[in-house]
Amino acid sequence: MTRVLTWLRTKMSAGGQPTIGGGLVDLLDGFLYSGNTTTVTAPHVRDSISTQQLVNTFVIASVPCWIFGIWNLGEQTNFAMEVIGMEAVPGLRGDIIAFFGTGYDPDSISANLLHGLLYFLPAFAVALLTGAILEALFAKHRQRPVGVGLFSIAWLYTLMLPATASLTLVAAGMAFGLVVGKLIFGGAGRYVVNPAVLGIAFLTFSYSGILFGHGAWIPVPGYDEPTTVELALDEGGVPALLSINYSWLQLFYGNQPGPIGVTSVLGVVIGAAYLIYKGVASWRIMLGSALGLIGTVLLFNTFGPDGDPNFAVPWFWHMVLGGWAFGTVFIATDPVAAATTNPGRWAFGVIVGALTVIVRVTNPSYYDGTLFAILLASIFVPLFDYVVVQRNIKRRAARLMERP
Fold first, then answer.
1. Is residue 359 part of a domain?
2. Which of 37, 89, 169, 362 has CB atoms 3.0–4.6 Å from 94's, for a disulfide?
3. DSSP 3-state of 306
4. pLDDT above 60 (res 48)
């Protein structure tokens, strides 16, 4: 494989100058193998993991969410088809399902997995191709090698999309998130906000009616099923969920309408354990977010208006509603955009958890506040780290002054 990549790079080079084709080859090479470059200036860190391997760890950790997600999407879609009497899906998806013979039985694991996968793969391919072209274009213009992390950004971005998003909007959101969130700041390691969440935010504000309107979550024409967050906040809190047979355990597993790979808290817990074990994500941010969510919910439960079911939703239900768990573990812990000091990580995590609940309960326009919580909290990350560093400098200076 290395020889093939070297041959392709040679064929696509132009007298040793960076080209778009060469940049695409470099992206594939960087994802599959560690780079052979080393740092030439301090600081030097001896470690077996490279930057590319670090971001790949987030992809590996999110695989359980992806598996639960495509099964859930397939099950929701097949069940909706059964309800409205739809026998088969048209087009290439229907041809592929007919070729494999899995059918549309919502009780069949293989049928659900294949049907869900056929919605994920086109969106992911478009996001990855869009990002690869833009990375190569910027690398050619700047006469620099392509950066790392594209696969991880495209992967997490696609997991946060609704299955009904058109491929045109998938490309538009990916382009905006990558260019505005990463490339104009100089590439990997320099952005302020996670590009994946910035791409979703762009689509949310620009095309909210198309992406998150009627029938957005289940790709069956004429069928609409609201998310559990919408149901709880519109129809009367937890009693509304229990009235249509949603159990806490069912939501914990992830069997609910929502973005492609965000619904399973069980998958998130598995991924969080792996990230903490590998040491690439901060457990302080995760725990801080949980504490922020729990503390804010308890305040709302205690001091909220009497008779308002939205303020009475318990904290353990908030944890399985919407995308708080996924956003906390895979987006808020981004090694580049998150705080780097330990006190800053605690503060950042607490703000993410608290703002998630505040936006959910008090803003009827956007039910799940995780996206906005992470964006707002990310703005204050440099301030958190600056305050911590300055306090440490003053403390050390004071100690030096006290010495005889």
1. yes
2. 89
3. coil
4. no
- Each residue's pLDDT tens digit, 249-268: 999 999 999 899 999 999 99
Quote the CA–CA distance of 221 and 216 in Å, as a whole number: 10
Which residue type is seen at 224?
A: D
Is 18 part of any domain?
no
| DSSP 8-state class, residue 308 | -
Concatenating the DSSP letter of every residue in 105-156 gives -TT-HHHHHHHHHHHHHHHHHHHHHHHHHHHHHHHHHHTS---S-HHHHHHH
As given in the structure block, the two tokens for residue 127 are 């996001």
Find tokens 């000091």 and name the residue.
Answer: 341
| Cα separation, 25 vs 12, whole angstroms | 9
For 328, the domain range is 238-391
Provide CB contacts within 8 A for 28, sequence distance 6+: 5
State the amino acid at position 272 in one-letter form: A
Residues 354 and 48: their CA atoms lie apart, in Å, by: 36
- C-alpha dihedral over 145, 138, 18, 122, to 10 degrees? 90
φ and ψ at residue 339, rounded to 5 degrees: -65, 150
* Distance separating alpha carbons of residues 262 and 159, to the nearest angstrom: 6
For tokens 């318990």, the residue is 314
Domain co-membership, 202 together with 56: yes
CA 224/CA 54 separation, integer angstroms: 39
User: Is the distance from CB of 368 to CB of 355 less than 8 angstroms?
Assistant: no
Positive or negative, the CA dihedral 140, 36, 48, 46 is: negative
Q: For 133-171, how does the pLDDT look when each residue is reduced to its tens digit (9 = 90+)? A: 898 888 877 777 767 788 899 999 999 999 999 999 999
Q: How many domains is the chain built from? A: 2
**Among 14-18, 202-206, 383-387, the least confident range:** 14-18
Q: Look at residue 25 and tell me if it is in a domain.
A: no
Torsion of CA 71, 72, 76, 78, to 10 degrees: 10
Torsion angle in degrees (nearest 10) through CA of 254, 257, 262, 266? -10
Q: pLDDT class for 47, splitting at 50, 70, 90?
A: low
Q: DSSP for 199-229?
A: HHHHHHHHSHHHHSSTT-SS-STT-----HH
Taking the C-alpha atoms of residue 200 and residue 216, their distance in angstroms, rounded to an integer, is 14
